Amino acid sequence: MRVLIVDDSKTARAMCKRVLPVSLQQDLLEASGGEEALSLCRSQPIEIMFLDLTMPDVDGYQVLETLKNEGLARPKVIVMSADIQPEAKARIEKLGALGFLPKPANQSAVERFLQEHGML
After folding, report:
1. CA dist., res. 72 & res. 45, Å (int)
2. E-strand spans in 12-86?
3. Which CA distances in Å does 119 have to 26, 31, 35, 112?
4. Close Cβ partners of 120 (under 8 Å, ≥ 6 residues apart)
5. What is the pLDDT of residues 25-68, one digit of tens each?
6. Domain 2-114 carries which CATH code?
7. CA within 20 to 30 Å of 37's CA: 62, 74, 81, 85, which one?
8. What is the pTM of this model?
9. What is the DSSP code (8-state) at residue 25?
């Protein structure tokens, strides 16, 4: 299963990688921004995406909108953010994200979310 971690912070990407189950670390890609993430989605199938919302080039909302509007193969998107308001949660779900995990995420929360959504 190809997994993509999208965050402009190298540290945040490393933290996300550490809390992923070993089974999801076999085919792992990283993107430092939304434009890079979209480029990867256009060039190869991505099954799961962990997506930050706040990024300087193309933010997480724009990534979700583009995936939806371009009809790209839609990965299962899990938004990871340090601060999310109820309005933002509703917006990401309307744009097709499976849900939200607070950042920094812990391993048990990630595994529980993945199990609930049939990805483990």
Report:
1. 9
2. 27-31, 48-51, 76-81
3. 14, 21, 25, 10
4. 21, 23, 111, 114
5. 899 999 999 999 999 999 999 999 999 999 998 999 999 999 99
6. 3.40.50.2300
7. 85
8. 0.94
9. S
